[in-house]
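User: what does the whole thing look like in 3D?
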Amino acid sequence: MTPKPAGPPDGGWGWVVAAAAFAVNGLSCGLLRSLGLALPDLAEHFDRSAQDTAWVSALALAVQQAASPVGSALSTRWGARPVVMVGGVLTSLGFVFSAFARSLLHLYLGLGVLAGSGWALVFAPALGTLSRYFSRRRVLAVGLALTGNGASSLLLAPALQLLLDNFGWRGALLLLGAITLHLTPCGALLRPLALPGDPLGPPRSPLAALGLGLFTRRAFLVFALGTALVGGGYFVPYVHLAPHALDRGLGGYGAVLVVAVAAVGDAGARLLCGWLADQGWVPLPRLLAMFGALTGLGLLAVGLVPVVGNEESWGGPLLAAAGAYGLSAGSYAPLVFGVLPGLVGIGGVVQATGLVMMLMSLGGLLGPPLSGFLRDETGDFTASFLVCGSFILSGSFIYVGLPSALPSCRPASHPGTAPPERGELLPDPQVALLPPGGPHSTLDTTC
Amino acid sequence: MVTGEHSNMPVEKNITLERPSNIELTCQFTTSGDLNSVNVTWRKGDELLENNYLINATGSILYTQYMFTIVNSEQMGSYSCFFEEKKEQRGTFNFKVPELHEKKKPLITYVGDSVVLMCKCQGCFPLNWTWYSSNGSVQVPVGVPINNKYVINGKTANETRLKIMQLSEEDQGSYWCQAIFQLGESEEHIEIVVLSYWVPLKAFLGIAAEVVLLVAIILLCEMYTQKKKKHSDDGKEFEQIEQLKSDDSNGIENNAPRHRKNESVGQ
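Assistant: Here's the predicted 3D structure for the full assembly of 714 residues, as structure tokens:
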């Protein structure tokens, strides 16, 4: 008479998982962004151009995102915990290997391939597990975890500079290997959770584990298309916002201010939107389309901002546009992951997270180079931001095609199915008959 | 060709010179008083210069001009024009060879690694470059390619690179690159620190040990709480079984099950 698995705990250990996911986000995406600080030292040591060394970061990002479905497939088979722990060790090994690099190729292999693969194994499983621990406060929890990005930039960037100044780039990479090893204890915190709606057995084949079958659902297909388009524009500001500010006539500190305004707006909005979305006033897909559209409009505004008169000006219009972009992009981020359980059911969330990362990577590989090309052709970033804003707008337009009424995520709306609390009497011995067969349970209504 | 400026304050002008040149220095002096009572002299440093200068007065402005040629480093330095009226006014021209761009951060390298030290001269073309290292006050020229340890080359005329291979801890210290012009030298200082891998490795092992400890604590804590939960679950299951039994036997008067319900069974 084992009790039927309870619904998402919506708290309790879930907050520990949220903290673990926060750290995972910081040690993967956040660290990747700060890695740029080491690139000039690498360029100087190996006597290569800035463009060649930039490939180290770009390769790591590409591997992390494109290989994400592998991470989620492995964790569907073996659970998120061992996969994330192994991912932490792999990432650490990548950094240690690259600390002893004798050529830029070693760095491509160590940081790009090894560390990138390790990161691919940690991000989707951690975030997917977090989604499973929450239902009513899911988007807030996801938003909380995603602020790990910004917090990491605040902490790791100065720390990395300190390491570089005291230990050189070799010592810095070695110690970053030790820091990223903390991904493993974060993985250890990801306790497996049994939920109604989980597939009964392990996936039948590797392809099934990848979750490609999720694409047969119309809702997820629409979402995938929209997300791939948004990905084409989403990453451009990360790369080109600062150069654009400089182009528009702001001085060095003015550009720093613009980037800071966008970053702070982004981080704050992740939390705020998370809380807002969970209130349930607006259906999640509608929020997703709305904030996606606002992000696109924000980027159009950033591109269309006029040239500032002199270097001393604080660049009011650009700051406002960057702030608007930051707030919208920050609101968009947790929604992308928060809407998944409603689309694919709680059982498919981990796989869906991996697929979403892969979709965004397609755009991520296309967007910044295209933006750079447009800049070289037209002389400034106006065209670049207009194009990436349009990508995001068209993706958001596709999001409008998502079903607005996703299955309810409120557990207590049906009488007689109150979630059994631990240790108490079972409800009526009316065991729910889980439908047999396929790895994709049809119990979408549990979320 | 250079000219001076005039003002009420001491005037100074820095001039960068690479090659031998003909020089013409001009100072202007304006005063409301009598121009003839002004004593005009030229000095190089403290040394009074005797000839080669002209003095001209136009209206209320006094001009003086000094022409000479600079061919070697001894002729570089500070040249001043002096106007002595009630108090002394002077204008100074400082001639210097181009300075190299100052780098500040020491280079951190590791044993067995190789390093490239670079010096660059912006917009100037030295005749030659040399490198030397100094430990304390002794300066030792560097660059003789013994055992393939040092390689000096430069991609363009205005830069030089010193590549040091197979670094060892003795290579640590200050290095100087010197740009040699016809009219003098200028130099730049670069510091190299050579660390052994053991330095960051110690920190790495410490942090790795901490991580292993964290993982152990997390997993042990979880095993402990699972065991406790299993115990209490077993106890509660037993209570539930007893409850159902007693519900079943409600119609039959039998007090015994009710007593047994309150017993807790270990394990």
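In plain terms: Residues 68 and 157 of chain A are 25 Å apart (CA to CA). Chain A touches chain B at residues 1, 44-45, 47, 85, 96, 99, 165-168, 170-171, 174-175, 177-179, 181-182, 184-185, 188-189, 191, 422-423, 425-426 (CB under 8 Å).
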